[in-house]
Amino acid sequence: MNESILKVLEKLEEQSSLEKSRKVNVLPEDRMLAITKETGELLNMILRLKNAKNMLEIGMSVGYSTIWCAEAIKEHSGKIISIEHTPSKIKRAKENFLKAGIEDIIIIKEGEAMNILKEFSKKENYRNFFDFVLIDADKENIIEYFDTVLPMVSLQGVIITDNMLYPEKYREDMKKYSNYLKTNPNIITITSEIGNGEEITIKIK
């Protein structure tokens, strides 16, 4: 892995660990709420296996997951469109991308995720466009996010959804989400215990 990327990831992992252990006091709106390192490795590996070129991230935060994905997708001259609504997190993410040297492959869309996704859904060029999607945003709208983004995913495209098992306060909502996905004949899906729990979904029709 590129040294610049590795240094930024290590710094963010340290910050995330401090936040989770409550060793630092951070305002709720500034918390990283990042994926785990194991999940980052999983995303990176799937992107490489897919030779993915077009990725959508719903919920960027300060860019930890984005950097893991960018490290893989840059090998195929790919691009990541990442959605985030908190200006302070966007500012931090941009700084992290610059330090990691991957700022040129990430397009940030600022605003409410659902509004941005609905705009994308109106554009024909986004139909069957994304090889890979990461959903790591508010859990209340998780089913609506999925339904809106599915037509934009290419055949055999992958959708990863974070926080299926942890934090426990979301577990009931995420179980409903997983059960909902299993009723869709156009996908296959499985819940993995990696990290905070990852739903791995493939579009087959």
Oligomer: single chain
Whole-angstrom Rg: 16 Å
Strand order of the largest sheet: 3-2-1-4-5-7-6
Overall morphology:
globular
Please tally the helical runs, counting DSSP H or I stretches of 4 or more residues. Answer: 7
User: What is the helix/strand order?
Assistant: HHEHEHEHEHEHEE
Cα(first) to Cα(last) distance is 35 Å
CATH topology: Rossmann fold
- What is the CATH architecture annotation? 3-Layer(aba) Sandwich
Number of strands: 7
The whole-number mean of residue pLDDT values reads: 95
Q: In the CATH hierarchy, what is the class?
A: Alpha Beta
Main sheet properties: 7 strands, mixed
Based on helices, strands and strand pairing, what is the structural class?
alpha/beta
Strand content: 15-25%
Helix content: 40-55%
Q: Unreliable stretches, pLDDT < 50, 5 or more residues?
A: none
CATH superfamily: Vaccinia Virus protein VP39
- Can you tell me the number of structural domains? 1
GO molecular function, one term: O-methyltransferase activity
Keywords: Methyltransferase, S-adenosyl-L-methionine, Transferase
Pfam family, one: Methyltransf_3
Protein name: O-methyltransferase family protein
